[in-house]
Design brief:
17 helices, 31% helix, Luciferase, domain 3, 3 domains, 27 strands, Rossmann fold, GMP Synthetase, Chain A, domain 3
């Protein structure tokens, strides 16, 4: 699991294949990451210090990540889709000593707060030193006393300010690997023959961790700079991808491709199709299994690292809708008073048996994530069945409370997403004088579909009989559903937008 060992045994093998087909060999990744590691030490960084990185998906991002990983640093990839104010908050909050910004992110660079060292890569930036010039004459051999570092990631910020998740810094020499690296190899079959495909943004936990983990196993990581369903299928054939990773919205877009397009590419190299990040609608997953075979592997976890569930296709077909049983830690389903609920009853999910985490520089949020028993929560709701399989309902913050009844947006979204007139959908709760909240459906119509009252009636007819009457949307809007590149709905954006509309109509 030591990058230096792989670079010595397979120096010319592609460790990475980038968005335009450019490649970086193991030898190149080893040499460049070592030079950057020497730079970090020369800047006075030591184990446990922080760096922040603002960059799109690009090849020269990876030597920076590996340099931090091999020198015991915390590294925070910043979501460059954030506003300037939000990105500045993350850089400031994580306490970075070094800030590295891609030249392509000049739109954010000037707005970011001052830190002791500001470096650009991939081109010049005003008031930033060029990384490439600083490392050109530095050694390409490893620094002394290499030790494992760790990403310090921030939550997606779908409902408020992003929260920095500070894990326990591993006390291990570089090459030991992180706990998740071992899980990838032991449970997901990653080895030196693996070709992993990531179409997601590298500032998110799964694309980042799995991309690095594939290299730890001696395989090749192929990554894109955006998700395009046809491109993904072409890449699977071109690079003989064995382990692609998706989120459910990507499945939907691939399934909606014409049959002749889906059947055009050779997908026989696939060994395992990995998915996570959001619950997958049952009909969507059934359709994917029918297409590619029973090779889907789903997992449920969080940046906090306080749980890990997984389920293969065979188990899922016997327990449709489940995200599996825990392979790390344990789960408890509790009511509002903290009492455990029996199988089948929905409550808040709490986890035990995993290393503790904290929200960086935010003791109040950290305290709120734990109960008196030391169990921690991600704020999700769900239930377990009699066999111990977990089923997710929604996040507590997404729950719609209408007339004293809990309504889970996911039920409505799952029913609508495969309707041929729907390209994307999100359900939110808007204020209602009579019921407290009402269900509002935000629908992105499919191409060539005309939005309006007729489409509303068609969608309501589709929902009738599939969800209870009290769960039917009482209003619709036809617009783009705002999502992060990870696939998560930005519900706070929708709520802010529609609260303003409601207020203007009431004036």
């Amino acid at each position: 699991m030591d990058l230096s060992v792989w670079a010595a045994t397979q120096p010319e093998k592609a460790a990475l294949v980038g968005p335009t087909g450019e490649q970086m060999s193991y030898a190149e990744l080893e040499a460049t990451s070592n030079r950057i590691a020497h730079l970090f030490l020369s800047l006075g960084l030591s184990r446990g210090d922080h760096i922040a990185i603002v960059s799109e998906n690009r090849l020269d991002l990876f030597p920076i990540l590996w340099a931090a990983q091999r020198t015991g640093l915390f590294y925070t990839p910043v979501n460059w889709h954030l506003t300037a104010d939000e990105a500045a908050y993350v850089v400031d909050n994580c306490g970075a000593t070094v800030l590295l910004v891609s030249a392509a992110r000049a739109d954010l660079a000037a707005a970011l707060p001052p830190v002791p060292h500001r470096l650009s890569f991939g081109g010049p930036l005003l008031s930033y030193d060029a990384l490439e010039s600083l490392v050109a004459s530095l050694p390409s051999t490893p620094v002394d006393d290499q030790t494992e570092g760790s990403p310090m990631l921030y939550s997606s910020g779908t409902t408020g300010r992003p929260k920095g998740v500070l894990p326990a810094m591993p006390e291990a020499p570089f090459g030991t690997g992180l706990r998740f690296d071992h899980l990838m190899q032991d449970s997901f079959g990653f080895d030196s023959s693996t070709v992993y495909l990531s179409p997601g943004p590298l500032y998110h936990a799964a694309p980042l961790g799995w991309s690095l983990g594939a290299i730890r196993a001696g395989g090749t990581t192929v990554f894109t700079d955006r998700f395009d369903p046809e491109l993904v299928l072409r890449l699977i054939e071109r690079h003989r991808v064995t382990h692609p990773q998706f989120v459910p919205t990507m499945f939907v877009r691939m399934l909606k491709l014409p049959d002749d397009v889906r059947g055009r590419q050779d997908l026989t190299s696939l060994r395992l199709v990995i998915h996570a990040a959001a619950p997958c609608p049952v009909d969507v997953k059934r359709s994917m299994i029918a297409w590619v075979g029973p090779i889907l592997m789903e997992f449920y976890s969080g940046s906090e690292g306080n749980c890990f569930f997984m389920i293969d296709s065979t188990s899922w077909l016997a327990h449709p809708g489940s995200v599996g049983r825990p392979v790390m830690g344990g789960v408890h389903v509790c009511d509002e008073a903290g009492q455990e609920l029996p199988p089948g009853e929905i409550g808040q999910l709490w986890f035990d048996g995993m290393p503790p985490f904290e929200y960086y520089a935010d003791p109040a949020k950290t305290q709120a994530a734990y109960d008196a028993r030391g169990w921690s929560t991600l704020g999700d709701l769900g239930h377990v069945d009699n066999d111990g399989f977990l089923y997710l309902s929604d996040r507590r913050t997404d729950l719609i409370l209408s007339g004293g009844v809990n309504i889970y947006p996911r039920e409505i979204e799952d029913c609508l997403i495969l309707h041929p007139a729907v390209a994307d959908v999100a359900a939110v709760g808007l204020p209602d004088d009579e019921f407290g909240q009402r269900v509002h459906a935000v629908v992105t119509p499919a191409d060539s579909v005309t939005p309006g009252p007729a489409l509303e009636e068609e969608l309501l007819a589709h929902l009738s009989g599939r969800v209870a009457r009290f769960k039917l949307p009482r209003s619709f809007s036809f617009e783009e559903v705002p999502r992060l590149p990870s696939g998560k709905v930005l519900r706070r954006v929708l709520l802010d937008r529609h609260h303003r509309v409601d207020e203007s109509l009431s004036q």
